[in-house]
Amino acid sequence: MSASHHPAEALLVDYASGALRGGGRMVLSSHLMACPACRDSIARFEAVGGALLSALPPATLHKDALALALARIERPVPPAPATTGPIAGWITTPADVVRAARDRRRWAAPGVWVASVTRGPGRASTYLLGVAAGMTVPRHTHRGAEMVCVLKGAYVDDDVRHAPGDFAFNDDSVDHRPGITAEGDCVCLVFTEAPLVPRDWVGRLFQPLVGI
Amino acid sequence: MNTPPAPRGPDGATLSGLIVRIAERGDREAFTALFSHFAPRVKSYLLRLGAAPEAAEELAQETLLTVWRRAASFDPSRAAASTWIFTIARNLRIDLSRRDGRSPPVDDPSMMNDGPSRPDDALGAVEDEARILAAMARLPAEQAQVITLAFYADKPHSEIAGDLGLPLGTVKSRLRLAMARLRIALAEPPL
User: Among A196, B77, B125, B170, which is 20 to 30 Å from B115 by CA?
Assistant: First the structure.
């Protein structure tokens, strides 16, 4: 199974250069883990980074830099941090996402759970959103950018199906009410630059409960 | 943009070979050669991105230490030495900004053991660097400018658009066109 909705190339360049950080990087990472085609693009963009690195004029190092490096490589290797296994039925995600799902999941409304992964910078927020089969997210739009990667299940937005690994980028030009398909519950990793803007009374009721 | 100077010092195949020697037998002579070539360039890269001299020096040290420890995961058929070391420096830089409390850690799928598969290209990735630099030199100035800002100024495309006073769509299409040309250059027959 491979993803059918991909990030814009400019976003892949931001990832490769390192300019994309934080929650946005996590969402894109989750897509990349599921998408060999975009990993392939990233590898090529990283090759551009490597070539540009090679082309730089060398800077002057401290006079004892090499001696220090040769001493450091003799030191014992610190133990690797404990790894977190994937969650059954989900696509592979960064370890922080798995930890959030295990430790910070809370029911926000019947059939809806959220787990905050990280907050910031500013009003930005990264969270997991789990919604039961057949439910519809109330109509809303966005202030600033939103990035979504489906981790489990599927939703339909404007007649387009988004399945595990699929990536979506939404902004204030999008006014939508994504619906979860009947097959089962759907879990998404979401990064928003600012809280959602509800577009109807259901949404206005829903937002304070869910806190997104 | 000025044409980047041709890389000096050992060629790509030699540099990849140094990493393989480190992986296979902990070769300190190979590490010394690799350090002498890359540590000053990694420091130069970090200085360009605005790091303080002490921080750039320390990150260059950390980068080459990571090269030593993870040498076994380097696959010379999939990435040039410079590309692999670039990703290590980039990831350490992101980790460092996280420790400053700004963003969370991210596992890096680009470190997953695959990448471009080019079974027809026996030389693998070692010639990529020369091809990319040659193609960069042939890019229209406006395309080279956005690539340079992305990689040498650490700017996301949205910020590049703001800095240049250009619509977002223009920056996105310049990046896309530039990357398409570089992609074609990578698919060319060996130099």
Answer: B170
User: Could you tell me the residue range of the domain that residue B66 belongs to?
Assistant: 12-111
CB distance from A66 to chain B under 8 Å? Answer: yes
Contact criterion met (CB < 8 Å) for B151 and A48: yes
Last residue of a domain, one of B57, B79, B111: B111
**Looking at the complex, does the CB of residue B86 fall below 8 Å from at least one CB of chain A?**
yes
Residue B158, both tokens: 């949205």
Residue A98 and residue A87 in contact, taking contact as beta carbons nearer than 8 Å: yes
Among the CATH numbers 2.60.120.10, 3.40.50.620, 1.10.150.20, 3.40.50.300, which is that of A1-81+93-212? Answer: 2.60.120.10
Task: Read off the pLDDT of each residue in A165-194 and give the average, rounded to a whole number.
Answer: 92
Q: Does A116 lie at the interface with B, CB-CB under 8 angstroms? A: no
Is any Cβ of chain A less than 8 angstroms from the Cβ of B106? yes
The residue among B68, B103, B172, B182 with the most chain A CBs within 10 A of its CB, best to mutate, is B103
- pLDDT at position A161, please? 95
Scored b (16 or more CB within 10 A) or e, B103-119 reads bbbbbbbbeeeebbeee
Contact A32 B109 (CB under 8 A): yes
Tens digit of pLDDT for each residue in A105-158? 999 888 999 999 999 888 899 999 999 999 988 888 888 889 999 999 999 998
Rounded CA-CA distance B33/B28 in Å is: 9
A17 vs B: CB within 8 A: yes
Do the strands A146-152 and A155-157 form a parallel or antiparallel pair, or are they unpaired?
unpaired
pLDDT tens digit sequence for A61-99: 999 999 999 999 999 988 877 777 889 999 999 988 999
Give the pLDDT confidence score for residue A122 in this predicted structure.
86
Interface residue A33 vs chain B (CB under 8 A): yes
- Please identify every stretch of chain B with a pLDDT value under 70, giving residue numbers as ranges: 1-8, 99-107, 110-127, 188-191
Closest CB from A17, A121, A126 relative to B154: A17
Q: How many angstroms separate the CA of residue A9 from the nearest CA in chain B?
A: 6
- The Cα–Cα gap between B43 and B63 comes to 10
Q: Could you give the ipTM of this predicted complex?
A: 0.90
Measured CA distances, A107 to A111, A140, A164, A186, B19 (Å): 8, 20, 22, 14, 50
